[in-house]
Amino acid sequence: MSGHVGIVLVSHSAALAGGLRELLGELASAEVRVVVAAGTEDGGLGSSYELIARAVVAADSGAGAVVLPDLGSSVLTALTVLEDEPRPGVVLVDAPFVEGAVAAAVTASTGAALAEVVAAAEEARGFRKL
């Protein structure tokens, strides 16, 4: 495999996911592909099977990709996409949206393997702020 592990941000809100992508752009290496699959194709709130499927392909540069959904139907839609269109090296991660994405992006920036990036995102669940 080559390249860095990519990240797919799946959210009901394009603004929310776009803001998170902007943050990750400041924290992560430019080699980490961060792709947004957010909202519906007509710009509304929701989740789109097609947008998620395209984002998964775009995020994977050969080292795999982690898919981080925000909540509810974005989780279910992402799960359905990955069941219908399985790709080796693409993992749906059960992690907090912001903290998990930050941990994944920073870890991916180091050139870490997919398993390490997945673990970093999942471990973010235990981060304490205070």
Automatic annotation (TrEMBL):
PROSITE patterns: PTS_EIIA_TYPE_4 (PS51096). Gene3D superfamilies: Phosphotransferase system, mannose-type IIA component (3.40.50.510). It is an enzyme of class 2 (transferase). InterPro entries: DhaM, DhaM_N, PTS_EIIA_man-typ, PTS_EIIA_man-typ_sf. GO terms for molecular function: phosphoenolpyruvate-glycerone phosphotransferase activity. Keywords: Kinase, Transferase. It catalyses: dihydroxyacetone + phosphoenolpyruvate = dihydroxyacetone phosphate + pyruvate. Its EC number is 2.7.1.121. Pfam families: EIIA-man. The keyword Transferase applies. PANTHER family: PEP-DEPENDENT DIHYDROXYACETONE KINASE, PHOSPHORYL DONOR SUBUNIT DHAM. Homodimer. The dihydroxyacetone kinase complex is composed of a homodimer of DhaM, a homodimer of DhaK and the subunit DhaL. Component of the dihydroxyacetone kinase complex, which is responsible for the phosphoenolpyruvate (PEP)-dependent phosphorylation of dihydroxyacetone. DhaM serves as the phosphoryl donor. Is phosphorylated by phosphoenolpyruvate in an EI- and HPr-dependent reaction, and a phosphorelay system on histidine residues finally leads to phosphoryl transfer to DhaL and dihydroxyacetone. This is phosphoenolpyruvate--glycerone phosphotransferase. It comes from Kitasatospora purpeofusca.
